[in-house]
Automatic annotation (TrEMBL):
Oligomerizes as a right-handed, spiral filament on DNA at oriC. The gene is dnaA. Residues 1-90 are annotated as: Domain I, interacts with DnaA modulators. This is Chromosomal replication initiator protein DnaA. InterPro entries: AAA+_ATPase, Chromosome_initiator_DnaA, Chromosome_initiator_DnaA-like, Chromosome_initiator_DnaA_CS, DnaA_C, DnaA_dom, DnaA_N_dom, DnaA_N_sf. Residues 170-301 form the AAA+ ATPase domain. Pfam families: Bac_DnaA (PF00308), Bac_DnaA_C (PF08299), DnaA_N (PF11638). Plays an essential role in the initiation and regulation of chromosomal replication. ATP-DnaA binds to the origin of replication (oriC) to initiate formation of the DNA replication initiation complex once per cell cycle. Binds the DnaA box (a 9 base pair repeat at the origin) and separates the double-stranded (ds)DNA. Forms a right-handed helical filament on oriC DNA; dsDNA binds to the exterior of the filament while single-stranded (ss)DNA is stabiized in the filament's interior. ATP binds at residues 181, 183-185.
Length: 478
């Protein structure tokens, strides 16, 4: 049997035993490397990943392996190491799976989410009245309202795991980073809100921006209350600091935070940090802090893909009490691609317009008019990629297909139309257009354009399709 086949069989069993979300987050990214002497080697993206699997899925992996390779089957991890400059290295360390204690031979069932060493409420510090601590959390930032997609799956599931088991997990600190308006604050506050919901004042949660922390610290020094400041932060069980990049260049604040960080981490308290860039990319921050930021899990947030943008819009519209038609949602999702805050801005603008103008039902034409300036700002010239999206959406095919080599009739037709429209709507050269379609050369683009033009003259159906798409893109690029 090859490593790929063995791992595929393992994945089938694993899928049946854990939730889809956990499967996608923790098992799909794993690569089978080799199968030798009944030992299957799999590659995991980080040391932390290995620890997480061993901590949470050890028994399940063990039994799965026994089913696929027999009782003597062994698992070895190949861990991709990070270089200090944050690039991943091809070097890897091989780690064996820890041996199974003889008394623990059990069925798969019930072991899938086994989490060892659950400590009962590790956060109660006698004598401290936690009721006094104001968490600073915004109640509307909750997991239920945080739409999941490929762009945030790992970060969201790690955040959920932390909320369920703060402090006693391997994600400490949890460092989340990504561009502006991509949902960092929402996600880190969701952790705090969930912990508060489940534990009330038993667990002291505190959310603060790094600027807020700095200002408080400066005030405390000014009023000779620095030690009270330190004491206060040391009693927090879950400390959430947003936009940590603003500590850059503030040496005294960094030093104070360093000591608070150490004290909390040592006591098994949870630290959650956010930044607009990865730890190593933050300038003017002491090396000892940077290295601590990387101790736990760093996860990034990306701009949501089209389907997630659509789902977010649907959700935001219904939270704001308006119902938007499919056409309008599609229009916004196609045209607002830089961040989620802008998507939200579009909904608010439509809502304001509808209520000021006493409009009961918004239609696409009106929505386009209202959002015209915003669309222009975020999308000055329609891209070849958007044209591909429109065309593929129209034909119900996967966008990647038009960039691949496939010669299937319907894909070839969609590809040719997309090339034709790309020439019509963009200033791109034939060469550039070809490059966007899987590196085809300019003569293929010329051929596509003349084929579409010819067909439009000979077939009404073809003409109608191209005209419809033309109109759709024209409105979108207003
Ligand atoms: N996946 C998502 N599902 C639902 N709403 C989201 C999602 N991602 C972001 N949002 C919403 O987008 C808005 C901006 O998000 P947020 O303030 O958390 O971004 P941020 O990354 O912290 O931005 P900044 O770096 O500018 O502070 C919020 O209203 C948030 O609710």
């Amino acid at each position: 049997m090859s490593a790929e086949t063995a791992w595929e069989q393992c994945l089938e069993i694993i899928q049946d035993n854990i939730s889809y979300q956990k499967y996608k987050s923790w098992f799909e990214p794993i690569q089978p490397i080799k199968l030798e002497n009944n030992t299957l080697t799999i590659q995991v993206p980080s040391q932390f990943w290995y620890e997480w699997l061993e901590e949470h899925y050890y028994s399940m992996l063990r039994s799965t392996l026994a089913k696929v390779l027999g009782d003597e089957g062994k698992l070895e991890y190949s861990v991709v190491l990070e270089k200090s400059n944050n690039e991943s290295d091809t070097r890897s360390v091989r780690l064996p799976q820890r041996p199974m204690p003889p008394s623990k031979e059990q069925d798969l069932d019930g072991y899938a989410d086994y989490s060892p060493g659950k400590i009962e409420n590790p956060f109660v510090i006698p004598g401290i009245r936690k009721t006094k601590i104001d968490s600073n959390l915004n109640n509307s930032y909750v997991f239920d309202r945080y739409i999941e997609g490929d762009c945030n799956r790992l970060a969201r599931s790690a955040a959920m795991a932390i909320a369920e088991n703060p402090g006693s997990n391997s994600f400490n600190p949890f460092f989340i980073y990504g561009g502006t308006g991509l949902g960092k604050t929402h996600l880190i506050q969701s952790i705090g809100n969930k912990i508060k919901q489940e534990h009330g004042n038993e667990i002291a949660v505190m959310y603060i921006s790094s600027e807020g922390f700095t200002n408080e610290f400066v005030q405390a020094i000014r009023n000779n209350r620095a030690s009270e400041f330190t004491m206060f932060y040391r009693q927090i069980d879950v400390l959430i600091v947003d936009d940590i990049q603003f500590f850059s260049g503030k040496e005294k604040t960094q030093e104070e935070f360093f000591h608070i960080f150490n004290a909390l981490h040592q006591d098994g308290k949870q630290l959650i940090l956010s930044s607009d860039r990865a730890p190593r990319e933050i300038s003017d921050i002491e090396e000892r802090l940077i290295s601590r930021f990387s101790w736990g899990l760093s996860a990034d947030l990306q701009m949501p893909e089209y389907e997630t943008r659509y789902a977010i819009l649907e959700r935001k519209a219904s939270d704001n009490g308006i119902e938007l038609s499919h056409d309008i949602l599609e229009f916004i999702a196609h045209n607002f691609k830089s961040n989620v805050r802008d998507l939200e801005g579009a909904i608010i603008k439509l809502l304001a317009h509808a209520s000021l103008q006493h409009v009961d039902e918004l239609d696409l034409k009106m929505a386009k008019r209202v959002l015209k300036d915003m669309v222009k700002e975020s999308n000055t010239q329609i891209s070849i990629e958007s044209i591909q999206n429109y065309v593929c959406d129209y034909f119900g095919i996967d966008t990647n297909k038009v960039r691949e080599k496939t010669r299937k009739q319907e894909i070839v037709e969609a590809r040719q139309i997309a090339m034709y429209l790309a020439k019509q709507f963009t200033d791109s050269s034939l060469k550039t257009i070809g490059l966007h379609f899987g590196g085809r050369d300019h003569s293929t683009v010329i051929h596509a354009i003349s084929t579409v033009e010819e067909r439009m003259q000979t077939s009404n159906k073809h003409k109608r399709i191209v005209d419809e798409l033309h109109q759709k893109i024209e409105v979108a690029s207003l």
